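Q: Predict the assembly, please.
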Amino acid sequence: MRKIIKDKVIVNDDWQVLKLADGEAAETITVPAGRTIVPLSVWLAQKSVLISRTDIGVWIASDERAEALKDDLSALPLIAIDFPTFADGRGYSIAYQVRTRFGYAGELRAIGDVLRDQLFYMARVGFNAFATREDRSIEDALKGLTDFSETYQTAWDQKTPLFRRAARPNAEEIA
Amino acid sequence: MYRYDTYDHQIVQERVAQFRDQVRRRLTDELSEDEFRPLRLQNGLYMQRHAYMLRVAIPYGLLSSKQLRMLAHIARKYDRDYGHFTTRQNIQYNWVSLEQTPDILADLASVEMHAIQTSGNCIRNITSDQFAGVAADELLDPRPYAEILRQWSTFHPEFAYLPRKFKIAINAAAEDRAVVKAHDIGLNLVQNAAGEIGFQVLVGGGLGRTPIIGSVIREFLPWPHLLTYIEAIMRVYNQYGRRDNKYKARIKILVKALGVEEFARQVEQEWQDLQDSPSTLTVEELSRVATYFEPPQYEQLPDADQLLAQQRHDHKAFSSWMSRNVRPHKKAGYAIVTLSLKKTGVPPGDATGAQMDVVADMADRFSFGELRVTHEQNLVLADVKQTDLLAVYSEAKEHGLATPNIGLLTDMICCPGGDFCSLANAKSIPIAGAIAERFDNLDFQHDIGEIELNISGCINACGHHHVGNIGILGVDKDGSEWYQVSIGGRQGNESAIGKIIGPSFAADQMPEVIARLLEVYVRDRHEDELFIDTVDRLGIEPFKAHVYATPIGGQSLEAGEGIYA
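A: Predicted assembly structure:
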């Protein structure tokens, strides 16, 4: 079974990610039994059936928008956001929408090109699960979550900016 | 100036440790070069032609003497004893090794400096007016806002992997010295009719391949909303900016594609629920940060008009230096001195370790221990007593820092070009050198008067050629280096993009091309008319006609043959 990072620990994971191959259509593809993360297009096409299952998650591609899922969020135990390459930063803003704007409280998982050196930022915007790239050490990747112990600005993990929560010195008080 | 507290120190030190580990993993191949590249770029580390180049952040161009001494030390210890000051008010070292970079960053951290986000597809160093705090035409000191933005943008988790680099500049003076219209976001600090302070917000300016002057999307944004409003702009851009083509990925392309009104509408919509969120700035925070930028302990002095008049009468060279390199200060008895890094024979913007040490000492003795870097790649002592000017001049002259050419032809902006940069199509420093030699005569330069000559070695436009009164762009044609010339560009309040005069030229033709452009100016100018105003009045035609009238010695091109004609 593959391992992922979830809530800062390495755990076994049995969710499978469904992808549409060439020639397959969202309306007609058979969603397998068992815990499955389906593409957003499949969810939207087959929602009337899938919504009765409790083992369905949805993944959002980096060129898709979370707005389409806005009304379904409470029904979903897992949302995943795909990073086609780690340098594609759209997933961070999608995570912002899912978490901060739409108030999603379930598992938010990063999938795709997910690597140690981006985990700190991903965690800040609201990801709590990371399906890190399987050709890299997941133990090593876990260290990426603790690169920094302090941050200036607000994000999902810290709702109050440093300037509102710390008594910072002015020019006369600075040592 | 701003000083690090325990939070700033901790964050910067954790960055050094993080990067040290990333370098270790790269050297042991745990990280591939493709994976490492964005990480090193966000630490200002480029792979250049011969070696790595490290770009160090100098937030809004402000330095202490202690920091400058450290920059000199780094030049000596890790590089070839010089550094290159850049058009983003930063400094670059051209000859560092990957293995030593973490140690350089640790040395920088010891003097409250870093290389964070000086490159890469993230929010870059916030730039501002080099005369902030001392300029008479300033509404308010913009630096507290620049520092607040520096902190906010540092490791912003959502905006570290943008479609492309992102540059923000703030101006607070009547004369825009921060080139705000050529930035992804340009901020003009303004006061509204009710006397409130806020920002006029521009987006979508930029140079590079598609030069565009920024558009106003909000005439007045009350200052407490600075961070949330910029967050809204960034989020629209991060989601909708193009990622399929790096040449179309800057925010200016998105703004053009959507139209300014639609882009502004999307930003306003995004901002609706951010407005008044906890990131909204407080009076307490602004006041706290502003304490770091309070004026130094000026003495109450009269203006030294009589003394200066006598000194200028006695020393002609001092007098021309005063005319070009010294500006009025808002405080009586003081003056602003620009130390020229544009001595003929030296690459524009370069300073040796020894020169940096000298400038640091001068800053300590004459200017409250602080100095500034200008986007024109010079250094500024902002708070010099008028009675010290002659002493400052003498010392600066002794160390090659007193060329009286600020604003003149040889005060060129120039990128490192093909001698160093692997992006460049052509060399730029030798062109600058050849032009500087041809027009070295200061009387001639003074007769020509104020003119901006900007040189970029490629379309990325690090040398701001589009906004030069004369712009020179290096282009590649079948593997050889050519230079395309434009005239009519401007920075500042009347920012404009220059127009290309015609086919490109070979390197050895360039001094003559400049000479011919200047001949038209001298021939046709009205009294007291600047070069740029003559170009505006006449258009490019007479210049073009004269430049191409007869072949220029060397490898002249047939009309129409230039690749960018």
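Residues 2-150 of chain A form a domain with the TIM Barrel fold (CATH 3.20.20.70). The helical segments of chain A are 40-50, 90-101, 119-125, 138-142, 162-165.
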